[in-house]
Batch of 2 targets.
Target 1
Amino acid sequence: MQHRTGRYAALAALLCLGLTACQTLPPPSTLPQSQQQALEQRGSDGSFEGAFDTAQTFERFNDPRAIAYYERAAAATPWTFHNTRAEQALGRIWISGTLRHADSPHINPAPVLRTSWRRGERWSLAAANHGNPYAFHDLAEAYRERGDARRALRWELRGMVYQRYASSSGLPGAIAATGDAVHPLVARIQRRAAAGDADAQVDLGALLEKGVGLPRDPARALQLYQRAGEQGNVFGQYFAGLLLGRSAPGVDKDTGAAAHWFARAEAQHFYMAAPSYWKKAVEPPFFIFSE
């Protein structure tokens, strides 16, 4: 009997410890009503900063009002590169169907959002076409998850040209590994480019510039970028500027011609084509080797 009583006492002690531990966890965070009102006033002042800061605060508390304020931030004028941060956030939210802190146990339970591929793709493309490099990665990943290898490759290639190094995913490597045989994806891009598709011309140019799946040919890549750029494709314009500004085998450095293409891309709100950005982008890469 004493043995059983001792066992019950031990279980009771453990239960008390468990309850005490539970009680020490902070409750879900909640914004005070007065702070919510102040936030909404700031978010409605017409500035990007007011709308974006409000959106981020609401998102930190898993409040779906974040979406409306990100939309205000994306539309804020005068337009700057900051607008693309709001566009990228909206793409992320709609594609995933979650707010950033959805899994946090110490914040209000995240609302159940219905994913919307159409909205997410639209906002992510807006961010990418305005020069947000993080959106390149978002789109490549999203298309890979949907099984759309051609579009996933497109955004991986654009990231590779912009960043000047190889992709971390296996798709470009798999294409390059085909050797002399033309990969079916590459053949499809070639057909679309020949038919005048500006995006495919940029894709083919990137394959040739980086030597992925085809022999490296920067001069031919430049021709394709320029052809796409003449059709108004912002990546054709920007990549033509990069290639002329950086130079490559068969392409002489021509800063004046590069500036012309960058100006055309900047006119389409491609913020990385502004002089303060492109002049750094065409500088030689520097490598630091440590022992």
Note: The radius of gyration is 26 Å.
Target 2
Amino acid sequence: MRVAVFGDVHGNRFALEAVSADIERHRPDVWVNLGDQVHGGADPAGAWQVQQHLRARYGVLEVRGNTDERLGEPLTDTTRKRDMLTWLHGVLPPGAGAALARLPTALTLAGGEVLAAHGTPVSPWAALLRDETGWATDELVRNRLGTAGAAQVVIVGHSHLEHVRQIGAVTVVNAGAVSRQKDGCPQARWTLLERGRGAWSVTFRRVAYDVEAAAQWAAQQAPQGAREAARLRSGRGES
């Protein structure tokens, strides 16, 4: 069994098109989207359309990211990142934000052997494998997993940093992000899980895409577009 896992698209159509083409070449049995689908500035409406196409064609399984959740909240005077959210609601189809906010926080597949979430199984806002600026201890990860540790593989996003660790009988994976990298390499990322002979293997994939085209789109059309463009070009910055 082959499971393609991608997430943290953050509204980057350019990166997502490259990732989806690479995934298609691997012919996975299951596709999983770890959330944070459109909160970003490199053609989020286009990124939404691509994800809807993939969902219709491949039955992509989806979980809710923290920015997906934010898109479902009412805008008030105290709403964080209100300018970006207002713009997103204007360029996305009606109801898109509400649909994203209704997605589950976690899901299981492969007969319960794999658990997928954005942050932790119970919260898209918390990082499973990160502790402030470093990697969390095994003990802390076990506590955050709770009963989800019954799965053989737990895969999450949110941190935008690739990582794999064996904690007892559980393989815990932080999938790479499609967009807004943090390690200085702007290439898009996704993760392939493969089951064979009773065991799961993990392969991190990196895909080149037209970063400059994405950056120019953001600079010309998105709120705080220059900042988004710099983040995409450098492969460093907040998510």
Note: The chain has eight helices and twelve strands.
